[in-house]
Amino acid sequence: MTHTAHRILIVGGGYAGFYTAWKLEKRLRRGEAEVTIVDPLAYMTYQPFLPEVAAGSIEARHSVVPLRRHLKRTRIVAAKVTGIDHAHKTATITPIAGEPYQQEYDQIVVTAGAVSRTFPIPGIADNAIGLKTIEEAVAIRDRLLTNFDKAAALPPGPERERLLTVVVVGGGFAGIEVFAELRSFASSLVAKYPELTFDETHFHLIEAMGRIMPEVSLKTSEWVLKDLAKRGAFVHLDTQVTSAVDGDVELSTGEVIPADLIVWTAGVMANPTVVRGGDLPVEERGRIRTRADLRVGTDDEIVEGAWAAGDVAAVPDLSGGGVGGYCVPNAQHAVRQGKLLAKNIVAVLRGENPVDYLHKNLGAVAGLGLYNGAFQSGNIAIKGFLAWLAHRGYHGLAMPTWERKLRVVAGWLGNVVLGRDMANLEAVQHPRAAFEEFAARPRPAQPAVTPPQAPRDAGAAADAPEKSRVAAGR
Ligand SMILES: Cc1cc2nc3c(=O)[nH]c(=O)nc-3n(C[C@H](O)[C@H](O)[C@H](O)COP(=O)(O)OP(=O)(O)OC[C@H]3O[C@@H](n4cnc5c(N)ncnc54)[C@H](O)[C@@H]3O)c2cc1C
């Protein structure tokens, strides 16, 4: 089969991948290229909403964008890319059902994002949960609610205290947001549980550095610390987790905090499956070495036909504001890089020159629970209610597609009138339990027993009740 159109393969339909495909659909002429997006998930996740999903302020399904609904001219493949052989322009596709196969391409776009980065601390892999996916956010919310139910059924004591203790590890943006949102959620829940008191709920955030939220000024970060302390949430600075075996969180200070909900947000790393499973160049921090025009390679050497963007890519930050000279992993960059990447691919296909990526950080805005937030742009800082409004305004607008924006904003307005939704669907993790409990099963087959030989008349008498039973059953 001969291919007249260029085959563009996008690895990962998250922020950068979704925007690349969306903009390619707008820019490409009909028949100019075939675009395929490969992602094991059928949706792009708006990760900045995860803390609000965990706190019940946003419905989980509203904070994801279904790929098939919004990418009308892109082929969507539910699979993982598990290998990239760029020397032969072939990717290994491992579908969610069926056998792995090889897919040829002309241009590859690597936008497979990042995963939670952990350290080999005993107990963390078994007892903690990350916050990178919608499933994790939902599970965190349901666990908090289930723990409140369990604690309310127990007398005061160590088990009840453990159930009402939340530990978040990592004081970056995501960590502080989910910590503050969960504190706010738990405070509102206490009013619905007459068996429990506010003082019984314990919130601890563990941060290895001497400050939180490096994206905002020291002054703003100190305000956030004070505000959290006022709300009964404790931040342990200059402290590390040394163990979490059986949920007992041991700190480098010697303190031990037994907890039933441990959220790990202490950093991310470029997607190892895609980075290590391929032959594209990788830099010291494990990201794909990418040029400012988003082609893979260096200033001196271009890897023809390969592009990368978002958290998986080390893109030079030409604004001078990046860490180590590279763009930091955030949505601000991922979305803009995705848009430019689409423009640059089309330019290259048409024999034109791609342009360099340049974006000056707009600042940072964090939601810190209902009616509370922090905003920082340069020297300008806003705290409290106005910052919370800015947070909702910014993210409400930034959510891709009007269809999704409307669902999120309608949910927020509904919550103003009705309050946030505290329905707990943790049982969905065992959806067949209720059905199985009462389901009728066939009786196990009885081993065949040969009846003893009986006299003729007695046998006829013994048959009689059996016959009448069969007749009654008709
Ligand atoms: C809790 C939280 C809050 C945040 N808040 C903010 C914020 O307020 N502002 C901000 O700017 N940024 C924020 N971020 C960061 C931002 O969300 C990320 O930087 C952004 O999502 C990165 O986009 P991406 O496209 O590189 O990766 P992602 O959006 O993570 O997408 C990667 C995609 O690749 C797919 N994938 C993974 N492995 C494979 C594979 N093997 N094959 C194919 N596909 C694969 C995944 O399923 C996913 O869909 C936040 C992040 C988190 C976790």
TrEMBL record:
Enumerate the UniProt keywords alphabetically: FAD, Flavoprotein, NAD, Oxidoreductase
> By its UniProt entry, which InterPro entries does this protein fall under?
FAD/NAD-bd_sf (IPR036188), FAD/NAD-binding_dom (IPR023753), NDH-2 (IPR045024)
UniProt KW Mitochondrion keyword = no
Basic and acidic residues compositional bias, start-end = 464-474
Listed Gene3D superfamilies:
3.50.50.100
Note the Pfam families from the entry. Pyr_redox_2 (PF07992)
**Stretches for region Disordered:** 439-474
Q: Which residues form the FAD/NAD(P)-binding domain?
A: 7-338
Q: Which family does it belong to?
A: Belongs to the NADH dehydrogenase family.
Name used for this protein in its record:
FAD-dependent oxidoreductase
Organism expressing this protein natively: Microbacterium invictum
